[in-house]
Amino acid sequence: MFDYYQEKKREEVIRKRRKKKFILASIVFFLFLGFLFFLFHSSFFQIKALEVEEKDNHQQIAEKNLISEVFREELNNLSWPLNWIFSKDNLVPVLFKKEVIIEKVFQSFPLFREVDLKVNFFEKKVIFLVKERNKFALWCKKTKEECFWFDEEGIAFLEAPVVEGELIFKVIDYSEGEVRKGEKVLADKDYLKNLISGFDFLNKAGIPLRTLELKDLSLAEISTQKLSNFPQIRFSLRHSPFFALEAIEKIRNIFPRLEYIDLTVENKIFYKEI
Q1: Which residues, in sequence order, are CB contacts of 162 under 8 Å at separation 6+?
Q2: Extents of the domains making up the chain
């Protein structure tokens, strides 16, 4: 026979047990949060040092203070409840924000072509390992009298003074377009590849000319400056000039008598005497 009062009593016992379990679980949960709060706000996980080293030779990098500012700004940019759990400059968030931090530093400093990040919990230290871009050539805006170093990938990364002479590879750009750090000096990858080939060609041909002039990008042509003992050499940005390497060697003895050498038509060489 169904005992109504016995059933109600059993349900009451179950409710009390559930309530006790809930209260106990809540206490454990808040104790755990309190433990985390205490742990992550203690000095145990606080960053004590930040180093920035060159990846290959481990030399210290001059931009350390600037990188530190970018790093700490991104590290401490936490949403709730993480900004409540972790104190500022805490080592733990570095682990789950590592890729974001690396990308931020990479975008903020075009000087670096590689950026890596390591955490030393024992020494409470964050170490950035970077590789700087190579100074391949200068890109100088004639209209603005400003120059930027760019690397073999065509990335402009560092401002430079305007220089004269033929000691350094450089491009003098007469266009109105802007050059921005962190971006390529030429958007077209084939143009860029053939520009690099132009400098390489001058080197391989033993021609001591280091300046190329870009008058009009729409023509896809670039040329050296004419010097007393060397003619102007005209290149196309649409193809490599190396087809003419052997022919250049054959006419080297008449260089002083030439006004220009034209390599803008692939597999053909034209020249004009003064």
Answers
A1: 140, 145, 146, 147
A2: 46-132, 137-273
In 79-207, where does DSSP find H-type helix?
82-85, 92-96, 98-108, 189-204
The model's pLDDT over 97-156, given as tens digits with 9 standing for 90+, comes to 999 999 999 999 999 999 999 999 889 999 999 999 999 999 999 888 899 999 999 999
- pLDDT band (50, 70, 90) for residue 78: confident
- pTM equals 0.79
In a 13 Å sphere around the CA of 161, the CA atoms on its Cβ side amount to 3
153 by Cβ neighbours in 10 Å (0-12 / 13-18 / 19+) ranks as middle
Whether CATH 3.10.20 fits 46-132: yes
Architecture of domain 137-273: 3-Layer(aba) Sandwich (3.40)
Rounded to 5°, angle at Cα 110 from 107 and 116: 65
